[in-house]
């Protein structure tokens, strides 16, 4: 069995804690590797080495740092298939979906090539007699990222790319469920010219997370995961004086107006609801048709599409629609919530509880489920299921529909399908949710905009990637300078306003 490592000072390093976690093949249920879980001492040692390496990296001019990003883009493209293959084998995603995972992370590294422009400060000439003022954006020092299992390439790249481009050293604590791709990315960045020690990959569980929170050298933490853990990291990190951004759970609503193209809406719902087995924070998990006629028309179109979904391992070909969920525990939790929906009175229109895949009976596959007549007090409506389960909540009016999304505790993403421009503009303006799609089911912004939810989906003032990332990973220093003009006026003891 393969024993994975940490990545410290530019090389693979075996763990010394004696603690390990199993890494499964989700399609077969078999353990394919084990990953070391770092002790506090291992984490602290990696941070200390990163702090030493950061001094020279932070002093490297932004253009040279951008060239490392440029070379990393080339190398990631070169290794795209190899990265996607490994990602699929540990996460369970289909091969095309795994390539998309890598690609969306790659786009942020492409954006980071613009670091010289993004790090430019401001300058004011002659703010006063002989006085100039200017601001500089400077790195924080050492930053850390704690990333989730569902995007083992994209989210680490979203975190490490801007942090490194800004001149920081970076400690990555990836998910212990699928840790191989982050280690491969570390190798790529070293080949691209990143100095040893600037990027450290430390595998671990809650013990490593707490060590990151307690380490005084780490100045900033970025996290993506569940809302309870996001709140925990945000609260403890801020209390320790760190800069923290945390992104949590979601319950994304898609409103379907009576004038919408029902076939287009149904196709969008199937892709957004069941793609990646629903293990996406931007998945659409709640469909809200407006009017009984809209709901009936939508159900009529959804059922045959869902029943035709092909579920299987990534090795079965590119026509597989989605693969297994990541662990047996995840599968059990999804099925538990499905049972709660039945018990609480929702109508299970498509029942995937008895799904079995011949030859993969021990894999973590979950069949597709579709609920109708879901109400807001049900657990399947309130909780993030993170599985291939779509719930339909029927709304009598547009105001009722938008109220459902606005009243939910999560505010990550939402969408509306309509031909009415006025309704779309009103929806985009009023909705209290961070990312909005208009006839777009998964409104994930491109790299040059920022990604982030509202309410209990996001904690912190700055979002991921885009300009916000460069603000998050730098501090602004403002300098007021005055050079003598040759006339000595003596000391001044009052704070004089500038003329």
Automatic annotation (TrEMBL):
Q: Does this UniProt record's set of keywords contain NAD?
A: yes
Keyword annotations for this protein? NAD, Oxidoreductase
The segment(s) forming the Aldehyde dehydrogenase domain are 13-479
EC number(s) reported in the record: 1.2.1.27
Q: Name one GO biological process term.
A: L-valine catabolic process
Q: Pfam families given for it?
A: Aldedh
Identify the CDD domains for this entry: ALDH_F6_MMSDH
A Gene Ontology molecular-function term?
A: methylmalonate-semialdehyde dehydrogenase (acylating, NAD) activity
Could you tell me the superkingdom of the organism this chain comes from? Bacteria
NAD among the record's keywords? yes
InterPro entries in the record? Ald_DH/histidinol_DH (IPR016161), Ald_DH_C (IPR016163), Ald_DH_CS_CYS (IPR016160), Ald_DH_N (IPR016162), Aldehyde_DH_dom (IPR015590), MeMal-semiAld_DH (IPR010061)
Q: Which SUPFAM superfamilies match?
A: ALDH-like
PANTHER family attached to this UniProt entry: MALONATE-SEMIALDEHYDE DEHYDROGENASE (PTHR43866:SF4)
Name under which the protein is recorded = methylmalonate-semialdehyde dehydrogenase (CoA acylating)
In its UniProt entry, the species of origin is given as: Rhabdonatronobacter sediminivivens
